[in-house]
Amino acid sequence: ATVSEPAQKCCTENIQPFLTSILEELMGPVSSGFTEVRSLFDKEVNEIIQDFQKTNDMTKLKENMDQLMNLPFNSVKMEPCYLKVNLLQELLQDLKSRFKVYHIDFVIQRTQNFMQELMENAVYTFEQLFSPSRQADPVKVATTIEKVKLRVLK
């Protein structure tokens, strides 16, 4: 009871007025990181479509799909996504001094983990939706891949 009132007063006066601007500032790099994940998924699936349209090779399509399933664990391809979030390092330094925010690396790492998880979910959903169509007529496969991609991106 003796701590509650001063703590609420401190939060109301020293933290709450800044929360909106802090969230806006932090969401820039986070949003751009997640947008990069979306773009990477889109680009990779488009490459699969283009490759299949050139070759009509179902074996190569399976190889490409296997590579897509490993995309979340491909640190080289995911790196541009992660780099977008590294901008939080600079933004959080200011918060660290003003609000005693610690564990900046943890915030960045968790955000990058969420990005990887999002990519895992995207490729898994893509594979689940596309899998029944794999045995379809090769003429329709590219169109089906595109439809499934758009569904996943929604």
Folded structure, characterized:
It comes from Sagittarius serpentarius. Residues 9-154 form the Niban 1/2/3 domain. This is NIBAN protein. Belongs to the Niban family. Pfam families: Niban2 (PF26086). With 154 residues, the chain is mainly α. The protein has one domain. Helices cover 84% and strands 0% of the residues. It has 6 helices and no strands. It has helices spanning 4-55, 58-69, 75-85, 88-99, 104-130, 138-153. It is elongated. The N and C termini lie far apart (48 Å).
Tags for this entry?
single chain, 154 residues, mainly alpha, 6 helices, 84% helix, elongated, Niban_1/2/3_dom, Niban-like
Summarize the structure.
The chain has 154 residues and is an all-alpha fold. The chain has six helices and no strands. Helix 1 runs antiparallel to helix 2 (58-69) and helix 1 (4-55) packs antiparallel against helix 6.
How many structural domains can be distinguished in the coordinates? 1
Radius of gyration: 22 Å
- Biggest sheet character: none
Are there runs of 5+ residues with pLDDT below 50, and where?
none
Structural class: mainly alpha
Helix content: over 70%
Strand content: under 5%
Distance between the termini: 48 Å
Note the overall shape. elongated
Task: Give the overall pLDDT as a whole number.
Answer: 88
By DSSP, the count of extended strands is 0
The SSE order reads: HHHHHH
Number of helices: 6
